[in-house]
Amino acid sequence: MKNYDLIQHVKGESLFVDDTIVPEGLLYAAVCYSQIAHGKIISISIEKAEKVKGVKSIFTSKDIPGENQIGGIIQDEELLAKNIVEFVGQPIAIVVADNQLIAKEAARLIDVKVEKLPEIFDAREAANKNQLIVPPRTFVKGNTEDCWTKCDYIIEGKTESGAQEHLYLETQSAIAYPVEGGGIKIISSTQSPTTVQKITARVLNLPMHKVEVDVLRIGGGFGGKEDQATIWAAMAGLSAFKLKKPVKLILPRQEDMRVTGKRHPYSSDFKIGLMKDGRIIGYEVTFYQNAGASADLSPAILERTLFHCTNSYYIPNVKATAISCKTNLPPNTAFRGFGGPQGMFVIESAIFKAAEVMGIDSAEIQKRNLLNENDEFPYGQKAENCNSKKTWSKAESLYSIDKIRLDVENFNNINDIYKKGIAVMPICFGISFTNTSMNQASALVHIYNDGSVSLSTAAIEMGQGVNEKLRQIVSEIFSIDIEKIKTESTNTTRIANTSPTAASSAADLNGKATEQACNNILLRLKQTAAEILKKNNLDAIEIKNEMVYNDSIITDLSWTELIKTANLKRVNLSSHSFYATPNIHFDRTKEKGKPFAYHVYGTAIVEATVDCLRGIYKFNSVKVVHDFGKSFNQLIDRGQAEGAIVQGLGWMTIEEIMHNELGQILTDTLSTYKVPDIHFTPDIEIDFLEDAENPFGIFKSKAIGEPPFMYGIGGYFAIMNAMKAFNPKLKCIFNSPLTPEKVLMNLYRKS
Ligand code: MTE
Ligand code: LUZ
Ligand code: MOS
User: Fold this and answer.
1) Residues with Cβ < 8 Å from 364, sequence gap 6 or more?
2) Last residue of a domain, one of 557, 580, 603
C-alpha cells in the first residue's frame, strides 16, 4: 500500500500525539477510575494524593466550570462521576503532575468510598428490567402476521455475538494548552475534531470559537475514536484551562483496554420462514444490544443493525426490532461496520440453521434470495445498480467453487482428524451516515504562488489512506505532480462543523468537496490562461501535466508560470467548497426513506481447516469478488479490504472479551486477548468487480473502509461446516466468537 506517509512511517518520523512538540512547562495527567460497577459515591478523598511530591492539582466534578456532560446523541454521560458510578473504569478524578508516573501513582492514592448498588451485565436481563437507553425501534415490511402459514419450513433460534477491542496502535491521547484570550488548543487523537471542540466548549463553558482542535493523523481509530476520544481531550482541556499550562494525557495500553468501550455484544432471537425451494418468505428478529452504561453512539449503531438485518437478501416480509440495553459495562461504541455486522451475523445464522433443517447447503438458500435490481429493503430504499448477484456468480466461476467443494470433500474423506469447511459470504452495506444531516463536508484549497498546493478537509488520516486519495483528486483535476500537493492537519479553524471521519465516507464526502474547490480554481486559471494566450474560447484551454494546452496543442505556458501570473493579476488562488450528499432522507416516524447514497456489494468464499483433536483451526483462504465501484487507488483499496477481512475473522473467532462477576475486564492485555497476526492471516485473493462505475461516489468509486469487514462472518460458518464434517450429528451453534475452546467442546458434544 503506497501511502503518502509510508516512508515517514517506516522511518519513525511521522508524528502522533505523544510526539507533538509542545510549549514549555508540560504537565501530565492521569485518571482515577471507579473500581465498582455500580454504586453511590459516598466520598472522594484526595488528601493523600495531593501530598505526593510533584502533584500539581487534582480535579473532580466540582471543578468543572461548565456542564459535566459529554453525551452526544443523549446527554447521559458525565465527564467525571459526581454521585453515581455505573461501570468499572468510569473516570472520577484527574491528577495533574510533573510526570506521568507521579500522576498515576497519585491517582491510585485517591480514596473513593462507594456504596454498592445492584449491577447488570447482561443485555436481556437489562431489557427484562426495562433498563433501556432509548425506546426500541422496529422496521416492518410486508406482513409477518400472516406470512408463516405459507411457509414449508419455519425455523427459530438464538444467536450471540461478542464484543471487540479496537486495538488502534496509538492509544487514546490528547495534549491541551492555553491560548491567548482564555481559550484552549487541543491536539487530539480523534476521528471527530468537532465533537472534541463542542464537548470541551460545553465542559469549559466557552463558545466553540475559543476551542481549537488539531489532528495531524491518528494511529488507527476503527470507530473507537469517533466518540470516545472526546473524553480524554476534554480532560486534558479542563486541566490546561484550570492550570494555564500545557497538559498531556496518554492512556497506557492496559488502561485503554480496560476503560474504553468496545464493539457492542448482541444477543438475538430469530424466526425464519422458507419455501421448499429455498425462497425466504418471512423473517422476524429481535436484537438485544449491550450498550454499556451510557448511550454514546448506541442508538445510531442500533439503527444500522436494523438497516442491515437482511444483509444482501430480498425478503418480502420482515419485522425487525432492536433494543438498546443499559448495562454496567463501559459504554460500547462505534466499530467498523457500526452494528451492521451484528445484524448480518443473525440472518446468516438463520439461513445456516434453515439449511441444516432442510438438509441442503446454506449457499443454496443464500444464492436463491440474493437481491435483484429494484428490490426493496425493509426501510423502503430500493437496490439500485445492484451488484449482489454479479459478485456471487463471478466468485463462483472465477474461483471454481465446484472444484473447491470437491477438494474439500476429498480432503475430508481421507483425513480423520483434520476437517475442512467452506462458506460463502455475500455482503451488502449502505454508504452514508444514517443520520442524514451528518453527510456533509468541506474543503479548503490554496495554491501558493510557487504552484504548490495546500489542502484542508474534515478527513482524518488514520491509516486508511484518505490523504493519498485526496491528493490524487487534486493532482487529477489540476493535472499536476502529486508531490506538489500537501494535505494539512485537520483543524477546526480551517474546516468547521466537521462530521467524524466514519461511515466509510471520508473519501466520498471530503473528496467531492475537494473536487468542487479545485474546479472553482481551475476555471479561474483557465480564464487567466486565455487572457495570457489572448484566446477567448475557454473550452479550448486545458492543463495537462503541468502545461497549458490550447486546442490540444501545447503552449509554452507552464503551471508554475500560470500560477505566478495569476497571482500578479490578483486572481483568487484559494477556494473553500462544501458538499452535502444529495437525495438522501429518512423518516424515523415511518422508518422508511432513502438513507444511503448507494450500497456496496461483494461475495467471499472462506475456507478453513479444523484440527478436531485440539479444536484449533486455520483459515486457508478468503477469495473475494468485491464491488469497489471504479477504484482510483487499487493498492489502498486492496489494503483496506485485506485489513477489514482479517479484523472481521478475528471478531468472529479468536477475539474474546471476558469480565468477571464484578464487571472487571479479564482480557486487558495482548496475552489474554488474542488478535489476528500474520500467522493467522489466510491467503486473501481479491478480484475487483469490473464495469462497476458508481455514479454517486468520488471519481465513480465506492467507499471501502467498512464493507469488507463482514466477509469475516463467513469464517464462522466455514469452521462450522468443518466441524459438521467431523461430527455430522453436530447441531450448529451461533455463539461467536467461535474460539478454539468452543470448537473443541462442541465437536464432542453429545446432544
Ligand atoms: N484503516 C486503518 N488503517 N485504520 C483505521 O482506523 N478505520 C476503519 C476504516 N479503515 C480504519 C481503517 C473505519 S471504522 C472506517 S469508518 C473507515 O476506515 C474511515 O475512513 P474512510 O471514511 O476514509 O474510509
Ligand atoms: N457513525 C455514525 C457511523 O455516526 N453514523 C453512521 O451511520 C455510521 N456508520 C458507520 C460507521 N460510523
Ligand atoms: Mo468507522 S466505525 O465508521 O469509524
Assistant:
1) 278, 355
2) 580
pTM above 0.90, yes or no: yes
Residues 209 and 305 in one domain: no
How many Å apart are CA 673 and CA 666, to the nearest integer? 9
Q: Under a CB-based contact definition with an 8 Å cutoff, are residues 266 and 123 in contact? A: yes
Ligand 2 centroid from CA 718, angstroms: 29
Find the domain containing 420 and state its range: 266-434+588-747
For 501-556, what is each residue's pLDDT tens digit? Answer: 999 999 999 999 999 999 999 999 999 999 999 998 999 999 999 999 999 999 99
Residues 721 and 667 in one domain: yes
- Name the residue of 166, 230, 297, 588 whose CB sits within 8 Å of the most ligand 2 atoms, as the mutation to test its pocket: 297
- The rounded mean pLDDT for the chain is 97
β-bridge pairing 211-215 and 490-491: antiparallel
Q: How far is CA 551 from the centre of its chain?
A: 47
Please report which residue ranges of 205-274 form alpha helices under DSSP H: 229-243, 253-259
> Does one domain contain both 341 and 452?
no
Asked if residue 600 lies in contact with residue 627, where contact means CB atoms within 8 angstroms, the answer is: yes
Question: What distance in angstroms lies between residue 505's CA and the mean position of ligand 3's atoms?
Answer: 9
Q: Considering the domain boundaries, does residue 287 fall inside one?
A: yes
pLDDT by residue (tens digit) across 443-489? 999 999 999 999 999 999 999 999 999 999 999 999 999 999 999 99
Q: Is the peptide bond before 737 cis (omega within 30 degrees of 0)?
A: yes
Pair (276, 407) in one structural domain: yes
- Shared domain check, 604 and 509: no
